[in-house]
Specification:
Layout (H helix, E strand, L loop, with lengths): L2 H21 L3 H4 L3 H25 L2 H31 L2
């Protein structure tokens, strides 16, 4: 996924996947009530989607093009961490 594909994905609902993945790793999130978790998720997902929309709408294309390689590096590292975790799980057996 490229940077130009990532922003629309966040706007269209990918923010739910991203925020959920992130918050599930925090103990504080697990320790709040289900109502509080729901409210935190709603506000966080709405904020991330709106921020992605603002970036896509108001940041000049030239700037987005300059950020694209940095996004590619981070996305590649993120993907390889998942690959290495899968390999590690298989290799242990």
């Amino acid at each position: 996924m490229t940077f130009s594909e990532f922003l629309p994905w966040l706007i269209a609902g990918g923010s739910i996947v991203a925020v959920s993945w992130l918050f599930e790793r925090f103990a504080w999130f697990q320790n709040v009530s289900s109502t509080a978790r729901e409210n935190i998720m709603f506000v966080s997902c709405a904020a991330l989607s709106c921020a992605a929309y603002a970036v896509q709408t108001f940041v000049p294309v030239v700037t987005l093009d300059l950020l694209a390689p940095w996004f590619g590096i981070i996305a590649g590292i993120f993907a390889l961490i998942f690959v290495s975790k899968g390999f590690h799980a298989i290799d242990k057996k």
